[in-house]
Description:
Layout: H1 20-27, E1 32-35, E2 40-43, H2 46-54, E3 59-60, H3 82-88, H4 105-116, H5 119-143, E4 145-147, H6 148-164, H7 172-178, H8 197-214, H9 220-225, H10 237-268, H11 270-278, H12 283-293, E5 299-304, E6 308-310, E7 313-315, E8 320-324, H13 325-328, H14 364-381, E9 382-387, H15 389-392, E10 415-420
Parallel strand pairs: 2-8
Antiparallel strand pairs: 1-2, 3-5, 4-10, 5-8, 6-7, 9-10
Amino acid sequence: MSDYTNVDWFTDEDIHQDPYPYYEWLRAQGSAVYLPQHNVVAVVGYDEAIKVFRGEEYYSAVNAVTGPFPPLPFTPEGEDITAQIEAHRGKISKGALLMTMDPPSHAAHRALLTGIITPRRLKENEEFIHRLVSKQVEAMLKLGSFEAVTEFGHALAVLVVADLLGVPEGEHDRFLELLPHTPPTLVGGKVDTAYNPLAALAGALAEFIVDRRKNPRKDVLTNLALARFPDGTTPEVADLTNIGAFLFAAGQDTTIRLIGSSLRILGDDQDLQQLLRDDRKLLGPFIEEVLRFESPSKVDFRLSKVRTRIGEVDVAPGTVVMIMIGAANRDPARFANPDTFNIDRTNRGDHLAFGRGTHSCLGAPLARAETLIALNHLFDRTSTISINEAMHGPPGARRYVFPPRYTMRGPRELHVEVTPA
């Protein structure tokens, strides 16, 4: 086993091409390991990860997006820094998003979203996914090949959320332009600040919400504009636009990476692909195993509010806790032969790809539905899906490039060839 003592997860680009040996090096040291470079405790054990996800009384989600970058705008004092976190939340980068809120604010804001995404709305959205995927596949078949990450997955992920929120189809191209496929959270904590896609999205959504409050219609945007908190109070426009922008951000990356990894695995294993073509009921288990085996989110972050202990590591208040989802999903104490892709795995659904607890991903059903529908349409219209060897090399010597991102996992590009059915 290589020695990763001097490797920095947040600055080393090479490690993110294949992070799994690093996960195992950490695991050999314990279920949690202190990384002194950035005052981070890395959690690689499955059981320990569950406890952190569900330990809201001990850990804040205020840094869930940013991790250790930038540093806290205050110096932690005492054995409970909850009050300090709340006092400085407005100065903490992205500390006011739905995914970074703590109770009770988180529950109240999440209720706004769950109140408008009803079973009926999800059914209508599913019909839109079928129409969109069918149109995309038709275009790809005419070319005989396509790039699955940006050409296929990105447009699908953005437009499906736009439809879910009720954005008129005439505005869909605008939202594609507002949310380009860019890689945030690059190693080193570098983020392109010249253009903030979430702020641009929030601005666009604000236009719709202000209009619907003045001129209500029978549509989803009006339902969002007129939504109320559980206590009956009216949210600020910013509260609603932040929720909408969050759904775009959360839905985009997970879906894109899940589709990309699914097609990569299918393209590399023609026998598995044929098995799924012959028995479509296996697509559900396949998707769950992809989520476990190649988790779209490599890590999630929390900030310790009080002194705790994870595994054998003492965690002081103000310490960044990094839940290494990709490692926990390959914990041999939870998953037998974890480095083997196996759709017959009985506990494949135990994976942590969408987190756990109150911050579990709201977009999980959407990501699963988009991937399932996309694969079914591709199988319906093709006889084979294969990896483009000119771009990625022959079997046994593939060349896949993964963006140097410490948060997400998935190929930068995936060129595939399709044979019409």
